[in-house]
Amino acid sequence: MTDLKPTLSPAITAATAPAGAPLVTVLDAKALAGLTQLDPTGANRLMQRVLTTYRGSLERLLSQMTHARQQSDMAALRLVTHTLKSSSASVGALALSVLCGDAEKSIREGQLDQLPSMLDHLAAEAARVDAAVLQLLSDK
Amino acid sequence: MTLPHTFDADDSPERPKVLLVDDDEVTLMLTAEALRERGFTITEANSGERALAMLADWMPDIVVLDAMMPGLDGFDTCHELREAPGFEDLPVLMLTGLDDEASINRAYQVGATDFFVKSNQWSLLAGRLRHVLRSARTRQELERSKSKLARAQDLARMGSFDWRNTASPGRAGGDLTLAPEALRVFGFGPQDRVSLRRLVRMVPMPERRGLTRVLSDVEAQSTVLAIDVPVTLPDGRTRIVHVEAEPEFNEHGHAIGYTGIVQDVTDRRVAEDRIRHLANFDALTGLPNRRQLIWRTERALDHARRLGHQAALLLIDLDRFKVINDTLGHAAGDELLVEVARRLRGCVRHSDQVMDGALESAGVRSHRTLEAVGRLGGDEFIALLPEVLDEEDAERVSRRILEAMREPIFVGGQECFVTASVGIAMYPRDGSSVADLMRNSDVAMYSVKNAGRNASAIYSPMLAGRGREKLELESALHKAIERNELVLHYQPKIDVRSARMVGAEALMRWQRGTSLVPPGDFIPLAEETGLIVPLSEWALREAARQAKVWAVNFGFADSIAVNLPNRMFERSDLVEHIHQCVSTYGVPHRAIQLEITETGLMKDLQNVIPSLHRLTEIGVEISIDDFGTGYSSLAYLTTLPISELKIDRSFVRDLGITPQSSAVVTAIIALARSLGLRVIAEGVENLRQMEVLHRLGCGVMQGFLFSRPIPPVELERWLEQTVLPRKAPWIVQAGAERLEPPRTTGGRRP
Fold it and tell me: B66 - beta bridge partners?
């Protein structure tokens, strides 16, 4: 938990910073552009729906993760990290996606030594992503 | 095999229907949106359970499954889907992680069509989907055409097979794979394993040997196989299977086996056989017809030519078949032909089937299967003997044929007696072609007809020349009867003591155009051609009619003598015929007297005697003509049922000139008297002869002195104008000597 802060502050900084470069560190601009292309006119409000869905999904998965950690349910942890990995990648939360991928890999390979810190790190990044997404939604 | 789709689906839908399954709502939403963008119709499901529930009553074109899902994951979902009927061929694309090789392997294990590593590069996913759909469509088309082919093969009772010549010590016969349709052709189920050896054993024995030889020849030379084989199926049915196969070679050019089809061609063969049978066999008797006979004979002659042996052709023509047909009707005639055909078959080693292809290879004796009896048409049959040692061989068969006809045939409610005339032509002596042999056997057959039928004859060149002449005469004589060109002239028999006519001899004349043909010019030929029979029958009828006319006109109550050849006496129906003639005209049996020459009588005494007895019993008297010229057995003469001896004209002519002749006449008269027979002299031309005969004790005569043979009307006039008025010189003389008052008409005997 100690190393949570240093990673947390830039995210907030980025999220609260004016639209531009800082946000890119949390949500990949290219990926977001890809999303925009799926609904170029915004008629389907796709971006809003996706981001809202993602937030809901993120909240659900994070609580599932907390529960699984308490129960030491590795299978549940693996599913959570797997799902969060791909959905995060979809919305451009590449750092979070990588963290999820690493955690998933550790669980799959049974290398659990680093797992608690990896998961802490993951949760912190998730908080940053959530803030960034929220920021993005309010901009729209 | 089920057809994947109905025909309305042309398998290139504008917007393929995709069922997208992912528990991650974000991915699901984005993927769905991206694919919609690219022309797909997306239906979303956020779990495996939900997906399966949707598929219960709906069929997408493709399913995209996320591998990792809580609950029923992608693998389980795919597995369950594949288990469900109808989903065996539904394309399933599995979405996996990039680094997850285990998942990829598992995806294939559970029946996924393909896998795709999850990414945000939607165009790649769309491209993959199109590819999977296209290959699925291609596969479906292949399946469909495979199943069409299978159905077509099934309908055609056809199936394919494959044979590998995996010759290894333990595996003789190689490796045979039969498609289910091919198994069905042989009566097996789709699961049965059948070896080549097993199949070969289903072929019955005589053909099996040929088949194994053909198979090993074909394999040894790597040639194409095409053969029809009879097989006995496991259920006992016999079918004919057509096998056609081509050799297959590996990249080194070595033959590695055969691939081909088997087809049940029984029905076709049966139809073909039926057609062939109709074309080659006579519909009435079932015997080979003319066409088939000619074909067989050609084959037989080929063979005889090559091997240098003789062959024989027997032409068999029924005697008097036309009469049977005319009197009993055509149905009875047909019945009779069928029975004759049956008997004729028994006289040779008749084979209905010629061992065709095997003719060359099955050994020298195979041409024997050509041997047969066939029907040329009408009442003409042919027996083909493909190999004979000599003409005695052929004659033996013809004797067998004549013998087979001897038993009466029961048709149309009565017994018929049929005889046949057989003409024999020998190859190569009597002809080297079918046509020559046919013609010459015909000539020989006609010579039998001419000589009295019911016999056989071998062709000789001599017959041919005479045959034509006789044919012309025969046809002219036939017409003579039809056209009423034949007439009977009558020569009176005179009892000189009473100067009365005591009977008349009927003599045949042929009124041919304006000329009158004397009997010497056509009777011998009629005898040779056999036409003497209908001629004689006509003469008997005509004589009976004349007897009636005279009875009415002037009270004639004596006999009219009709000359019959000895052959007529052999006929069992002679008595019946005479009975019919006299009954028709209402005259007594004794109105007809029969004259048979001494020579004719003695030639065939044994066969003639029974007739003579029966004739005598019914009152028909027999007179022996030309007596003294033949070599009569006096012993027989005493026992024969005869009534009259007729002194031959040669003795009469010499009476008063040579002493020998009067000695003979004296002896004949003495013999007749002692046997209780009447005696009559013929050829009396002058008063001297009459006087001598009278003196020697013969009072009844005929000859030019009294009258030539004259038409019946003239005879009446002669009686009226010469006998009645007693104006002739012979009457004066006889009357002067005997002083017996003459009677008024040619009346009754004392």
Answer: B95
Write out the DSSP string of B593-635: EEEEEHHHHHHTHHHHHHHHHHHHHHT-EEEEEEETSS---HH
User: Parallel, antiparallel, or unpaired: how do β-strands B62-66 and B41-45 relate?
Assistant: unpaired
Do B107 and B185 fall into the same domain?
no
Q: Which region, left, alpha or beta, applies to residue B310 given φ > 0 means left and ψ of -120 to 50 means alpha?
A: beta
- The pair phi, psi for residue B338, each rounded to 5°, is -65, -40
* Phi, psi angle pair for B490, to nearest 5°: -125, 135
Residue B743 lies in a domain: no
Contact B347/B383 with Cβ under 8 angstroms? Answer: yes
For residue A44, what are its two tokens? 């389907």
Q: Is residue B174 part of a domain?
A: yes
A29 φ/ψ angles, rounded to the nearest 5 degrees: -65, -40
Closest CB from B24, B25, B120 relative to A34: B120
pTM of the entire structure? Answer: 0.41
Q: Which residues of B touch A45 (CB under 8 A)?
A: none
CATH number at residue B406: 3.30.70.270
The per-residue pLDDT for range B104-130, each reduced to its tens digit, is 888 889 999 998 988 778 888 999 999
Q: How many domains does chain B have?
A: 4
Q: Which CATH architecture has domain A4-17+26-131?
A: Up-down Bundle (1.20)
- B167-192: pLDDT as tens digits: 655 555 688 899 988 999 999 998 88
The residue type found at B717 is R
Distance CA B404, CA B398 (A): 10
Angle at which helix A29-38 crosses helix B25-37, to 10 degrees, equals: 60
Q: Where is B668: in which H helix or E strand? A: helix B659-675
Q: Does the beta-carbon distance from A86 to B99 stay under 8 Å?
A: no
CATH number of the domain enclosing B252: 3.30.450.20
What domain range is B213 assigned to? 156-270
Candidates B25, B68, B118; nearest CB to A57: B25
Q: Determine contact: A48 vs chain B, CB below 8 A.
A: no
